User: What shape does this take?
Amino acid sequence: MVKESARYMKVDGWIFEIKTVRALKVDDYGKPYSAIANCNINGDTMYVDGLLTKEDKDFTKEDGMAFQTFCQKLGIDSLTYHRYQNGQSVNKNVKINDGKLITKNELPQNTDNSIRLVK
Assistant: This one.
């Protein structure tokens, strides 16, 4: 018997696991949204890919906190995303720890070996 969690459940001999999430910034589902992100979950880390905001709106600290809260609810230990801050490309790796949201580190793009989408 497989234990159920927020990320997977067993139904009739099948295990359904959440691996990909589409996040929309909108008050009501089905309405036009102002931002979108595709999130991939691998192990205990969620990677936010393709984070786009409409009309040059900024990805705010409150937006980041919403992603961290989502990770916390799913039992995800860390969150990784990319953004531009003050004209510089920055990767953020955030550790989610027992209800406390702690920034693990910020790496300039040129010191990170991960694959990135470029214009």
Q: What stands out?
A: The chain is about 10% helix and 50% strand. Residues 45-112 form one domain. The longest strand covers residues 88-97.
